[in-house]
Amino acid sequence: MKKTVLAAAVIISALSTAASAQPKSVGGRLAFGLEASYQHTVRHADFIEANLGVPYFSSLSATATYNFMIAQPVWTARGDWGFYAGPGLSVGYAFSSYDTMIFGIVGQIGLEYSFWFPLQISVDLRPQFGIGYGAGFYNEGLLGFIPTVGVRYRF
Known about the structure:
Elements lengths: L1 H19 L3 E8 L1 E11 L2 E10 L3 E13 L8 E15 L5 E15 L4 E7 L2 E5 L3 E8 L4 E7 L1
Antiparallel strand pairs: 1-2, 1-10, 2-3, 3-4, 4-5, 5-6, 6-7, 6-8, 7-10, 8-9
């Protein structure tokens, strides 16, 4: 029993150390609605992004994407640029006359710039294809095909 507890403690401390060593960022996204955004670097420059927001100010949505860093061009002497894209999932609740649950598959593609101080800005597209429970496909099946600006604090 003591060995099991000791092994579990070692594994948990190793995982928490590895997680705290990865770059993270927190901030917001703005388009036709607002979102709180969190990014966590997973492998090299790839990252997971989780967002909670109010798209079109008429629903509540949670979205998670796994983004692959496609290219990191050196366009400036200071700061870092990055092109990224990746798949994800979304779930939400629309406050309309039908009160609809929304489920969708998303794809995200964007460009980000990380300053030499802990600030990151990004512009991306995140179209969402899915269904609204009880209402069929929403907006002909496509939602969120709007350029979005993100501002995040990196730590």
